[in-house]
Design a protein that fits this description.
Structural class: alpha/beta
Number of helices: 4
Distance between the termini: 16 Å
GO molecular function: 4 iron, 4 sulfur cluster binding; metal ion binding
Organism: Methanorbis furvi
InterPro entries: Complex_I_20kDa-like, NADH_UbQ_OxRdtase-like_20kDa
Mean pLDDT: 86
Radius of gyration: 15 Å
Shape: globular
Order of helices and strands: EHEEEHEHEEH
Low-confidence stretches: none
Oligomer: single chain
Pfam family, one: Oxidored_q6
Number of strands: 7
Cofactor: [4Fe-4S] cluster
Length: 145
């Protein structure tokens, strides 16, 4: 697996919590520990969506966060991918009938990679990042994504 020249640097990821219970966020932090150390593969969390290649979103989207999520997505340069971590982001999970949800993430912005689980293990999150890298390669190669 090799990224094209514009992504030869590390793959930068911006994390956005759209209303999560923090279970997925804790697993993301566990993924960043030296035990898994995704930075050795060039994966790095960044503090601004303007520098990110991948938007990593956790939780269902609350009404208050829907416009902010659209804004963060619009601030990312292309090619960009969205990776949803956790069941709540995919379907709303146990919060799906809540009055204050705008919906699952794919009803707000386009989603490229899903990482299922409540909360997903760090190995599953790393697999999702590998899937995102493969999809970015296809996007950069001009192929069908």
């Amino acid at each position: 697996m090799k990224l094209t020249t514009s992504l030869n640097r590390s793959l930068w990821v911006f994390h956005f919590n759209s209303g999560s219970c923090n279970g997925c966020d804790i697993e993301i932090v566990a993924t960043l520990t030296p035990r898994y150390d995704p930075e050795r593969f060039g994966v790095k969390l960044v503090g601004s969506p303007r520098h990110a290649d991948v938007l990593l979103v956790t939780g269902p989207v609350t009404n208050q966060m829907a416009d902010r999520l659209r804004l963060v997505y619009a601030q990312m340069p292309g090619p960009k991918l969205v990776m949803v971590v956790g069941t709540c982001g995919q379907s709303g999970g146990v919060f799906s009938t809540s009055y204050n949800l705008a919906g699952p993430i794919d009803q707000i912005i386009p989603v490229d990679v899903y990482v299922p689980g409540c909360a997903p293990r760090p190995e599953a999150i790393i697999q999702g990042v590998v899937t995102a890298i493969a999809k970015l390669e296809r996007l950069q190669g001009g192929g069908e994504a």
